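[#protein-structures] MJ: dropping caffeoyl-CoA O-methyltransferase here for a structure pass
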Amino acid sequence: MATVIGAHNFAALKAVYERPSLRWILQPRMQLTFSGRRMNLQSKSSDEVEGSPWDNKGLLQSQELYRYVLETSVYPREPEPLKEIRAITANLPDFYMGTTPDSGQLIAMLLNLLNAKNTIELGVFTGYSLLLTALTIPDDGKILAIDSNLESYELGLPVIRKAGVEHKINFKHSPALPVLDKLLEDDKNRGSFDFAFVDADKTNYGNYHERLMKLMKIGGLIVYDNTLWYGTLAMPEESVHKLMRSERSYLLEFNKFLAADTRIQISQVSLGDGMTICRRLF
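AK: finished. structure tokens for caffeoyl-CoA O-methyltransferase:
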């Protein structure tokens, strides 16, 4: 049975963000020296105000260094519509599901390098990465966006419409596997996509990978989000919150699978919660 797109383990993530940071909880066993500062869930009117919801999202262990990256290289170049969606997302209890702006900056560069026109997105949430893609690809480009959570998508939809890029988006309110399988029934869809971004239920990543590999062009990219799972992959299982363990276990195996998959070239980058970039070789 297909797991629903966007069905992250909300209880687990909520447990992490309602307590001192997960790294702080695990510090005695891991002998790490990370800050125990609590996450501030209140939205801020300015990117420059200390305590932004994005402070602890990245894997960089210095908040000051991460803020430097955001304020120097990311925020000054972030289009205004993306700032609007980020502000909307910051007010939500599950804001941490949104794509981080530094991750978005890399995705935009990858899209430009590919000259991508036909893309697919599994897991949309409020639409930060979707809007970023729509702003980046050419006017005749298309994005197949799939998510079973219509309510979250509709929060960002007014911004997408105001940005004038809704015509590029084909949103499917559905679990992903049936949509992917339907695409594969038509041979013209095979090898027709330039780029895919996957930020969905983690335990289906392997199922998505096999289908996306058939849909991607040779040289096309698949980007998987959350492949470092809040830093827990390098921690002993007994040290990890029990609600985080099932996804942790699956991602450990998925990362090994990607590393051994000779059909792709990979790069795992520590932006946001970790992203793995896969380039189809054949």
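MJ: nice. Residues 1-10, 16-46 have pLDDT under 50 and may be disordered.
AK: one more thing. The radius of gyration is 18 Å.
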